[in-house]
Amino acid sequence: MQADKSLEQILPYLRKDRNFSEYVTDCKRYGIDLCDELLDRARDQEQVNFFDLGCGFGLASQDIFPELTKRAKIRKLPTDVVDRITYYGIDKYYTPEGERTAQVHFVTSDLRFFQQESLPPIDVGLSYFVFPYLDRKLEALSGWYHHLRDGGRIIITNFYQDQLRQISGKFLASSKPIPLCALFIDKNVVEERKDTLLVSKSENPMQNPEFVTSRDETTLWTGKGPKGSRAGQKISFYRAA
Ligand SMILES: C[S@@+](CC[C@H](N)C(=O)[O-])C[C@H]1O[C@@H](n2cnc3c(N)ncnc32)[C@H](O)[C@@H]1O
């Protein structure tokens, strides 16, 4: 596995303690109701896998089931639909200390090269404020996409188009943002809402242009830590197909 030293430097300064109700509140801003997204699937499906991609301290595992149960009651759904839902927290740098149960799992894995044959498919994946910190953004996106169940969906927050760039000549300075529709043969699988990306599974694969390099966004290190609105974040460059 490749180490990412500049990421390791910035990690102590990032928030890693969001819980599930914060995820729910924030996703509402993009028109996504995370509880309904899971419960609707659990009505029709024996097992529904929620993947917290870049889970940090994994606090979402602590309130996900009470939150889902509350919502199931409001919707007058049988509360045992919640038993069909399983939480998978994935992170490379943190191993949460919270309780593991049959419904809560934590897995150490590098999200940039996500290949976990031993794990079940993703029904709903949320990558909350993780994408900007990945240097190999398309490799990550591709790994998650291939792990999606048919009909599954991944929500990627803080997706900044200008951090995903293509170069056609030699010079990084002349690179342009990659149009998302160029990455997916089926144009309906990807949808942008504000700075959030929604990716659904389709039979047509995602295309992966060749990785060239990555660059850190401007980060100023002061005595008190990093400064800069995108401190520690990364831009990934790919060769135009
Ligand atoms: C800003 S934190 C967000 C954590 C959590 N989603 C939250 O909102 O509280 C970004 C998380 O991404 C994880 N991360 C960054 N790069 C990763 C990688 N290549 N593989 C796995 N996890 C990674 C970090 O360890 C960190 O926990």
Write the layout of secondary structure elements.
Layout: H1 5-10, H2 20-28, H3 34-44, E1 48-53, H4 60-74, E2 85-91, E3 104-108, E4 122-127, H5 137-146, E5 148-156, E6 164-167, E7 176-177, E8 190-193, E9 196-200, E10 211-216, E11 220-222, E12 225-227, E13 234-239
Parallel strand pairs: 1-2, 1-4, 2-3, 4-5, 6-13
Antiparallel strand pairs: 5-9, 6-7, 8-9, 10-13, 11-12
The structure holds S-adenosylmethionine.
Architecture overview:
This protein has 241 residues and is α/β, with parallel strands linked by helices. The protein has five helices and 13 strands. A seven-stranded mixed β-sheet has the order 3-2-1-4-5-9-8. The chain has a four-stranded mixed β-sheet with strand order 7-6-13-10, with no helix packed on it. Strands 11-12 form a two-stranded antiparallel sheet. α3 crosses α4 (60-74). The longest helix is centred in the N-terminal third of the chain and has 15 residues, at 60-74. S-adenosylmethionine is lined by residues 7, 11, 14-18, 54-56, 91-94, 110-112, 128-130, 133-134. S-adenosylmethionine binds at residues 7, 11, 14-18, 54-56, 91-94, 110-112, 128-130, 133-134.
Entry keywords:
241 residues, alpha/beta, Rossmann fold, seven-stranded mixed beta sheet, four-stranded mixed beta sheet, 13 strands, 21% helix, globular, binds S-adenosylmethionine
